[in-house]
Design goal:
Layout (H helix, E strand, L loop, with lengths): L17 H15 L5 H24 L3 H33 L5 H26 L3 H15 L7 H24 L2 H21 L1 H4 L3 H26 L6 H26 L5 H7 L25
Helix pairs in contact: 1-2, 1-5, 2-3, 2-7, 3-4, 3-5, 3-9, 6-7, 7-9, 9-10
Length: 303
């Protein structure tokens, strides 16, 4: 008896587009206000960052006033949530670094917790000016614009390659200068590269995503420790300097380990920059063609 062979058709790639993330922002904006839960705040800020990142990228390939409106609409709330989120992260690190009996830990937690009350109030004020319904309407207006080019298109691959080159250049700056600002800028550049891949070329970036996320997490820890370091120095007159230096030394060791881990991944065999760039070899690049030189004016014979 003959058996029919069923060949499964490949499933089309699901597009997690701008309208999905904008809908998520509108949904979470209501949820956050129920209790200002740490995880809800983090999720809302992440969704907002996705929207803002996509708007920035889309403005480069398909200009429209709506991208600027999206960023303007979310700016104040995004910044307010960022300050509150920084406080949450500081508290997490403080509790990791020292036992509950540590006097500096107690001082830091008390100081940060007092400021958080004002930060929540700032978030509430910003939230009161943010209209989720209007944000959904803006999402509908931008939906067709956001899907003008298909996922994995050459346009998006060129954009991803541009983001990669920006990150690679920033890595050279950070590696030579080793300043805290340079490492922070590299973290942001890698985030932009990752978001461009995830949002617009997910199949292209899928083989690299695990390493890319890990490298970003390592730099995220470095940034968190740098932010906490500034917080410690704010209290230098309120604590024993020897004890403060012990904290700084402990934090520096953790920071150094993460930078060493990042350097190891970046300088692999072959280096990740080389691997990632190799993935874009087939992408045609735009070349500058100089305009032809103007023809010399014809000589006129004397009359």
């Amino acid at each position: 008896m003959a058996h029919s062979l069923h060949i499964r058709e490949p499933q089309p790639l699901k597009r997690i587009g701008l309208d999905d993330w904008m809908s998520r922002v509108a949904e979470l904006a209501g949820k956050v206000q129920d209790g200002w839960d740490v995880d809800d705040i983090h999720d809302l800020r992440t969704a907002m960052r996705r929207c803002r990142s996509m708007a920035e990228s889309l403005s480069e390939v398909n200009p429209d006033p709506g991208w600027r409106k999206l960023k303007k609409t979310t700016r104040k709330l995004f910044r307010a949530l960022g300050e509150l989120r920084d406080s949450h992260v500081k508290l997490e690190w403080i509790k990791k670094l020292a036992p509950a009996s540590d006097p500096l830990r107690k001082l830091l937690i008390q100081s940060i917790s007092e400021r958080m009350a004002a930060q929540v109030e700032t978030c509430q004020n910003a939230m009161a000016k943010f209209d989720p319904k209007e944000f959904r309407r803006l999402s509908k207006k931008l939906s067709d614009r956001a899907q003008f080019f298909p996922l994995e298109s050459v346009v998006y691959q060129r954009l991803a390659l541009t983001r990669l080159n920006e990150a690679a250049l920033q890595y050279q700056v950070a590696r030579k200068g080793r300043s805290r600002i340079a490492w922070h800028r590299l973290r942001i550049a890698l985030k932009h590269f990752r978001y461009t891949l995830e949002n617009f070329a997910p199949q292209h970036g899928e083989p690299w995503m695990e390493n890319l996320k890990h490298m970003q997490d390592l730099l995220g820890d470095v940034h968190d420790l740098d932010v906490l370091r500034r917080e410690l120095w704010r209290h230098k007159t309120k604590t024993d300097l020897v004890h403060l230096e012990r904290w700084l030394e402990l934090m520096q060791k953790r920071r150094a380990r993460r930078l060493a881990g990042f350097a190891s991944l970046a300088a692999g065999d072959p280096p990740v920059w080389q691997v990632w760039r190799g993935g874009f070899r087939s992408v045609p690049t735009l070349q500058f063609v100089p305009a032809p030189a103007a023809a010399a004016p014809a000589a006129h014979s004397a009359s």
